[in-house]
Amino acid sequence: MLIIGIAGGTGSGKTTVVKKIIQQCRANDVVVLPQDSYYKDNSHLPLEERLELNFDHPNAVEFDLLVSHIHMLKQGKSIQMPIYSYLTCSRSQETIPVEPKQVIIVEGILIFTHAPLRELCDIKVFVDAEADDRLIRVIRRDIVERGRSVDKVIERYLKTVKPSHEQFIEPTKRYADIIVPQGGDNTVAIKILSEIIKQKLKANDYESKHSH
After folding, report:
1. Mean pLDDT in runs of 10 for the chain (212 residues)?
2. Which CATH superfamily is domain 2-194 in?
């Protein structure tokens, strides 16, 4: 099993990188565990408070659950991945069953802030993008997908997204094995990553065939 961590700032293009890597692999070999699914359930708080939460802070994520799920998958057990809603800032009653696969991609802005999770990753990738490119993506996404107003998005960016990026996310770049500038547009970096994955999978196939 190969565990790949893909981190980077909000709006850096992580999701695009993940999609392009998946396209390079056999579909039934890969499963993605998004950090966003593991945000702590805040349903006990009133909605106004929930909407003011800082989702760019490591404390917002239930890392222990994510780490224990990865350990279970490594042991060949299936897991029940939580479903998190940005609109209500709470967890759904339903979960998504996830089976162990050859490649597990863990993707999220804060994943390298948590040492036990970093240590589980065989390959650590940091998707890098200019701050203004990220801001434009964040504005677009939050207005279209999350129904926020421009003022609200900019206020949130200045109050939590930008300071948290500088305090927590940017410093984790030093843990990366591979840094991908220009996010999903960097076809060369994605090709290299995909090749590394294919080589590792071949090696795993070889080992499993010859270990019996």
Report:
1. 93 90 83 95 88 89 98 97 88 94 95 98 94 86 80 88 94 95 86 86 78 68
2. P-loop containing nucleotide triphosphate hydrolases (3.40.50.300)
